[in-house]
Task: structure prediction
Amino acid sequence: MSIVDNFYLLAHDENGKPRVQARVAALGLAASVLAELMLTGHVTIAEQRVQPTAPPMQSHVAGQRYTPPPDPLGHTVWDQIRHEPNRHQVRTWLGVLAPTITEAVAVRLVRIGALDQVEVGRFRRTTRYVPIDRNAGVKIKAVLASRLIQADPTIGWSDAVLAGVLHATGLMADVLWQDSGGRGRRYLGEILRDIGAQTPAFIDLFADTEAAVGDAVLSHRV
Result:
């Protein structure tokens, strides 16, 4: 699964309820979409602003055009970014994407057979998206936690970036709840430093996500 799909399953429990504030989960999903577009070379972050890049070209009979992101959701967000005349800051885009991103990702997961759409409530019916495999999130969490605690050197970019978004949204504590010796947290720190050294734009994304999450939590308490 993608970073976005994995984050969704980690941010929601077996009953489809968010493990954190709904706004926080949405900001994490928005950050995950941007992260995927960064990994595929469709956007970057420069001076804290999200900018479209020139991804690989694909040939057509009538000429050439940029290869769009393979995922429809990523394609939609990429179109929004590249057609926006102003280069908005990361936090602006997180705010723009957050209100609709949770539903969009849930619908996609229903389409691929990972979630089931159910109606709940006796008098006031609401829609909830429940994992087909009730242990899907637990499995993802267990694998990621094990790789971090064991300092697995083969962790790839997708898992490393996912860990960064989880850390920024406060969900890493749930992943590493058995890390009594702190080895997983130390290795996570190493991974994030390596990411920052190779692609500083990801550190900007994580930092802005964490700041947006902090504001969301604070406003919820007020």
Remarks:
- Strands lie at 43-46, 49-52, 57-60, 63-66, 115-120, 126-131.
- The first helix runs from residue 3 to 11.
- Residues 21 and 220 are 9 Å apart (CA to CA).
